Amino acid sequence: MSPYQTYAEKPKEFLALTGYTREEFDALLPHFEAAFLERMRTYRLDGRPRSTRSYSSYQNSPLPQSTDKLFFILVYLKTNNLQMMHAAFFQMTQPQANLWIHCLIPCLAQALTALGEMPARTMDEVAWDTETTLYFHDGVERPIPRPTDPEAQRQYYSGKKKQHTLKNLTLNDAACKIRFLSVTVEGKKHDKKVADEQAYRLPAGSRLLQDTGFQGFSVPEVQIVQPKKKPRGQPLSDVDKHCNQWIGSLRVRAEHTISGVKRYRIVKERIRNWKAGFRDRVLAICCGLHNFRLNFRPWHYPPLQLHLFVNF
Fold it and tell me: Which end of the chain has less neighbouring CB within 10 Å, N or C?
């Protein structure tokens, strides 16, 4: 019996292993299967271009069905196991596990793209919703193994996290769906500097909530809402404290969004895969998985009182 068959009828274990319920898994499955078959028309399992022979599941394949393949890659992203452990769980060798991981990651990305759930990577690609007027952005840091090169060690060391990290910015809407994900940069770079390099272009008249790490950042025709910093040597007034508390109660959606993405431990713990572009791609995929999940399990917040922003 395959691991999928073992856990398919165990809702609690299935959710813990994949981050998805069976309903969500089954909704994603046909799009993932179509993306896999499309890739196999052009490439072999090892990523080399296909010449003449068409794809067919080989005899004694450890992942014979589409359900097995999707379960395999979701468990890898959710648990961030060593490839040796992941291979043992799916009754294959470590080289086979590595082969399947790098084969299925692009398929999952393509499936989420077809569903419209992948975040845009440039501002020109963002599909803005005319009814949405409130956005949140924040920095996301992920730990990486300590680089061996001294210069790289200085570049990737984050004084905030006290470890070597990568950084991205996420821009999400009030429903906590991630609309934009910035390029991956070194953890040392400041949030505002990363934001300045992204050429933000939000809808005119919208509002952008941010924390004090973006002090001085602005977007044309967009109202910036940010907590007030305590003046040096002086206390904050009671009014400023109240306003900061109110802004924090709204901006917590950005924190909830990041925590939703980091349910997948591959973007929470140290990522050990060194393949070029892999670290950037898995974060985008985890953002897409988060967006797709919200279609089935949306988060509920108190209604936004947008009239309070008028004289802010």
Answer: N
